[in-house]
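User: Show me sequence and structure for the first protein, then do the same for the second.

Assistant: Starting with the first protein.
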Amino acid sequence: MFQKYLTYYFLLLILSILICSFILPFLFQKNIKFPQTSSDFIWPTPNYFTITSKYGPRKAPAGGASTFHSGIDIGAPEGSNILSICDGYISFTGFKGAGGYTIIVSAPPYQISYCHLNPEFEVSVTEFVYKGEKIAKVGPKYVKETSNNPYRDSTGNATNGATTGPHLHLTIRENNLAINPLQFFSNIIEQ
């Protein structure tokens, strides 16, 4: 009886080795390269480079906006394309407080938040995106009423988070701490 179980365990061991050696690598053969240096990032808004609000302390531009800006605002017209700045996985799509309609790309150790987007998302949670791939469009200032959106302008119209108009808010977090995104784009933008 013991020999019968030993044979089953041996076959199970051989099968496990085959799966780990041949089948799993075949299933996960994407060439994933998470960012390591600033040269691994690209600018998210082709043809639009104006920084309308820098990282750090500021006077809040809209009700509900923070006096410490956790990212940068890039001025761009509604409908402008937004590209993934690096390879990564989509970990969130939805309405996220002051950021309005938001996509988060996870690329360990970084999490990149793209905020104030068009609510018709072009990517889905768990999807893998490549650096330079179009993931969204700059959203409108005004959006349809939703139950989780407390943001309004002075006339009571629902806004795309705490915003005064169309733009991309870009936050980069490293190990869950917000850092200045401009450090990754010094070759493109003067600081």
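Switching to the second protein now.
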Amino acid sequence: MFKTLLTLLTALVLLSSCDSTKYNVDYDKEFDFSKLKTYKFLPWSPQNSERINELDRDRLYDAIRGELAARNMSEVEDDPDAFVNLIILMQQKTGVTGYTDYYSPYGYGYGYGYGRSHTSYSQYSYTDGTMLVDVFDAREKRLVWQGSAAGEVKGNQKSYQKEADIRSLMSKVFSFYPIKKSNR
């Protein structure tokens, strides 16, 4: 009995520590990504500025730069091989949790069908965010790769934690990029 309870508690701890961010990637499997050596960011969207501040924008761009540099791609001002676009979407949502107290002040149940229970509900608000990174072939002017991450946006973080989280997030998104990191 003790081993079963210990196993159950261990499983619950492991599940609760899982990253709830969902990652998705889509790309043209026929496209030769090795010919993309340079890139340029497309202009920052005004809608993104309503959702995210300049500091976080710069953190996101720096993380993308790091991932592309690790794949031997360089940022240029003129005549890039690829255009990179960053889109941020955020939405306020409401969640509901419920808790049933079988030992409520309304009675104590001794067996099936006896006694009372009390269920209480509480609402909470959170921000759901989606980040899209698009890579376009500049010559053909078409989307060749898109990576996304979606999940609950963490609030009230210290700047060093934001930087670490953004680098980690971008690393996971780009782990699905067809060109792997170089060992330079």
